[in-house]
Amino acid sequence: MKTIFIVDDNDTNLMAAKTALDGIYRTFALPGAEKIWKLAERIMPDLILLDVNMPGTDGFQTIKLLKADEKLRSVPVIFLTAMNDEETEIRGFELGALDFVNKPFSAPALLKRIETHLETDRLIKESERAVRELHNATISVIADMVESRDKVTGGHIERTQRYLDLLIGELNRTGIYTDEIAGWDLELLIPSSQLHDVGKITISDTILNKPGKLTGEEFAIIKTHCAEGERIIDHIAGKTQDDGFLNHARRFAGTHHEKWDGSGYPGNLKGYEIPLEGRLMAVADVYDALVSERPYKNAFTHQASVGIIQNESGTHFDPALVAAFLNISDEFYKTSAQQPGTR
To answer: 261 vs 87, 96, 176, 271, 319, CA distance in Å?
Structure first.
């Protein structure tokens, strides 16, 4: 059953709308806009009926706040109003309202409008979901092509996605960097990390799959994969209007080898100069490299790998992220242990 918030300071109007909708929808009658956010902490609405003229925060102010809220911005809003002028309607539509229902309203007409808008919203979200699935599948194919050239890192992309998910979950649990994370769409961010090594597509197979230790010149070439990854992603971005997925991907690709003390590459960024995406991937990437077997080294044990990351807190890694990692290192181990060639 769909959930509808009815927001109106007039008890008569509030109860009239609730009576019309009860039994068809799960309804919550709210006497003021301020109540929306507290209730939404427990129950997400599928649609909001919002009075325009209310004391305190009126309907126009409320919809501005709703559209600025990452959690509530996509919830459809229908204005309830006794006003019937063009200026009011234009302003409401400009702010993101789907429709206006004039008071006093007809119950059958109100029900029909709600039904129509909820069905439209469902179709839009299904379409967006299908496009996103196609988008992510395409990126996965590209990432798989890159990984298939690097014979020593099988499963790396899949594992690092899982590590990132674990780290971000722990940051949310402990209240670290939550303001920044709150602005992220994790359904975009996590898949975008698949492109963190896309720049390796420009590196020759001879160097990429060399069984022994790289020379200084060869390592310098390997290091170019960060800048090359940024360049490739910028090229893709120039052909699309995407401003979320590719922004995350660019930060992952360009900054995952930067170090907290400024000794990393390619930009020698230091501390908070390094985007959070890069700092997160640094932990995930290094842990996976440590516990994985390579032609030039044996896999480190999980315990040894945890010790290395802990010892490099404040030099290689963001100390806050190392603390989060230590809290959930057992979960990292479970993920790594599912793959051959790890210890």
So the answer is: 56, 45, 20, 6, 11
Q: What are phi and psi of 177, to 5 degrees?
A: 60, 25
Cα–Cα distances in Å, from 216 out to 128, 160, 220, 229, 309? Answer: 47, 27, 6, 21, 24
| Cβ neighbourhood burial of 56 (10 Å; 0-12, 13-18, 19+) | exposed
* Tokens 């649609």, residue located: 47
Cα separation, 132 vs 88, whole angstroms: 35
Is the pLDDT at 153 greater than 80? The verdict is no
Q: Residue 32 belongs to a domain with what CATH number? A: 3.40.50.2300
pLDDT tens for residues 248-264?
999 999 999 999 999 99
**pLDDT for residue 151 is more than 60:** no
pLDDT tens digit sequence for 174-196: 999 999 998 898 988 999 999 99
Tell me the residue range of the domain where 51 lies. Answer: 3-124
